[in-house]
Write a structure and sequence with these properties.
This is Histidinol-phosphatase. The chain is built from ten helices and 15 strands. It has 303 residues and is α+β, with helices and mostly antiparallel strands. The strands form three sheets. An eight-stranded mixed sheet has the order 4-3-5-6-7-8-9-10, with helices on both faces. Strand 1 and strand 2 form a beta hairpin. The longest helix has 24 residues. The chain is globular, with a radius of gyration of 22 Å. It starts with a helix and ends with a helix.
Length: 303
């Protein structure tokens, strides 16, 4: 369902409200706290009053304007999650960049209808850059954009926020298989990498893991509206309820490189899997070897 123009305008008002808060804290002394989630590959994440204040500003606007709508936000969780229309908010995607004064973060706003993202905003408030997509068209600062990308994966520039986001074993092996096939891999952009892909600014692929719905749902209408593809690592759509994705996201500028990337991510070579298997398995193997050597040494002394 395509959102009405007034809803698109309201989504941008949300981004404006978040930006008004965020700019007050930009490159200023910050109190940085840590939040922990032991279930994630990267269990510790920073949070600031800029994150919390920006989300509060957006929530207040939604509650006042669309009280029947649900909300899912990174900082304050769910409100009315079973509503037909649910706003999904990440006030600062890339808090590590924000706290280090690097302008490669963004405010993410998504609107989902029955779980499907139908509207997305990526806003970079200190650079004055905004991408708005409804799944059919995407604009960058009011002008239509279109992703194109390279014709072969070997010519592609790929992005990931950090190699540390991939769990040891399958995820690390799959990412390494993709990294080896692309021309170049860069790190450190968070949502901004997806925006660059949508605008055809030279990014062809983004591959990430350990993401939450508020990290990726706004990206879906923006990338789709620009003609790009964004799915999980198996090629399935990303929705509010796509738990099977396990937070693994792949964005590609065109179908050719999307298929090539999916093939690599599905079946990484066995040698890469063994090389990147969980450290616990390596540690246990090393412990067994050490124990065997110790027992052998003791037996020689005893006999």
């Amino acid at each position: 369902m395509k959102p009405e123009p007034e809803v698109v305008e309201f989504a941008q008002r949300l981004a404006d409200a978040a930006g008004d808060v965020i700019r007050q804290y930009w490159r200023q002394p910050l109190v940085i706290k840590e939040k922990f989630d032991a279930s994630r590959v990267m269990p510790s994440e920073p949070v600031t009053e800029a994150d919390r204040g920006a989300e509060r500003a957006m929530r207040d606007l939604i509650s006042a304007t669309y009280p029947a709508h649900g909300i899912l936000g990174e900082e304050f969780g769910e409100t009315n999650p079973l509503a037909e229309w649910v706003w999904v908010l990440d006030p600062i995607d890339g808090t590590k960049s924000f706290t280090s004064g690097k302008p490669l973060f963004g405010t993410l706003v998504a609107l989902c209808y029955r779980g499907v993202p139908v509207l997305g905003v990526i806003d970079q408030c200190v650079l004055g850059e905004r991408w708005v997509g409804d799944g059919e068209t995407t604009t960058f600062n009011g002008k239509l954009v279109s992703a194109e990308g390279k014709d072969r994966i070997e010519n592609c520039l790929a992005y990931a926020t950090t190699p540390s986001m991939f769990a040891p074993g399958y995820e690390t092996a799959a990412f390494e298989a993709l990294r080896r096939r692309t021309k170049r891999t860069l790190y450190g952009c968070d949502c901004y990498a997806y925006a660059l892909l949508a605008s055809n600014f030279g990014v062809d692929l983004v591959v990430e893991a350990d993401l939450q719905p508020y990290d990726y749902l706004s990206l879906v209408p923006v990338l789709s509206g620009a003609g790009a593809l964004i799915t999980d690592w198996r090629g399935n759509p990303l929705t509010l309820h796509s738990a099977s994705s396990k937070g693994r996201v792949l964005a590609a500028a065109n179908p050719t490189i999307h298929k090539a990337a999916i093939d690599l991510l599905r079946r990484p070579p066995l040698d890469l899997y063994l090389l990147n298997r969980p450290k616990l398995a390596i540690s246990l193997g090393a412990a067994v070897a050490m124990l065997g050597a110790l027992l052998l040494g003791n037996s020689r002394r005893l006999f």
